[in-house]
Design goal:
Nucleotidyltransferase, domain 5, 5 helices, two-stranded antiparallel sheet, alpha+beta
Length: 208
């Protein structure tokens, strides 16, 4: 049984080769007097594996990298990955990060998996199995949709960046790498503080 879940609306747009893809989206007026949103990374249930993934794109250079982190129900580190993917854009980087994570899920035979990223648009597309006009984006989406049905139970959710810091750090590490790298059991030292805060349930306040 597959489960797809969406959370927390956010303003975002998809880009293909640097150009915005035209599609309907809501504009949410900023009101700094509203109550802030509490953002906390959550542990998966016992028996589940949680993947947080992220893509990083360096402004005008267009150099992109990806990263992701797998943790168990105790918030213990299982595996992390990072790599540079060359020149692209933020949308492709996010999709590539998720796709690489799913490939690792398949390689390790994990059957109950929670996928979580900070791009609401991409979560909507994957969860809703929607098509997009950009051929390159759709190609990545199609590959993702081929792997997801192989997973026994799969949840995909959106989280704000404040709750996706570990994956973001892995993606930033990817910029420094000349070849793809995978960490098993022991994470890089740059991730330790973030993992500890996530495990303790540290909450961040995000203004609407």
């Amino acid at each position: 049984m597959k489960i797809y879940k969406e959370m927390m609306p956010v303003i975002s747009r998809l880009f293909c080769n640097g150009a915005a893809i035209n599609r309907p989206f809501r504009i949410l007026a900023r009101n700094w007097h509203r109550e802030a949103i509490k953002v906390t990374w959550e542990k998966p249930e016992e028996g589940w594996t949680k993947l947080n993934y992220d893509g990083s794109c360096k402004g005008k250079t267009g150099k992109c990298s990806i990263g992701g982190i797998f943790r168990d129900h105790n918030a213990d580190f299982l595996l992390g990955y990072a790599e540079s993917i060359g020149q692209s854009n933020s949308t492709i980087a996010e999709l590539a990060a998720l796709l690489r994570g799913l490939e690792i899920v398949r390689e390790n035979g994990w059957s109950d998996v929670w996928l979580e990223g900070d791009s609401k648009s991409l979560v909507d597309i994957i969860a809703g199995k929607r098509e997009v006009k950009c051929t390159q984006v759709q190609m990545h989406v199609d590959r993702i949709n081929l792997i997801v049905p192989e997973i026994k139970n799969c949840i995909i959710t959106h989280i704000y960046r404040e709750g996706n810091r570990a994956a973001d750090k892995f993606a930033l590490i990817g910029h420094q790498l000349k070849k793809p790298q995978v960490w098993r059991n022991i994470p890089p030292h740059q991730i330790m503080r973030i993992m500890k805060e996530d495990a303790q349930g540290k909450t961040f306040l995000r203004r609407r």
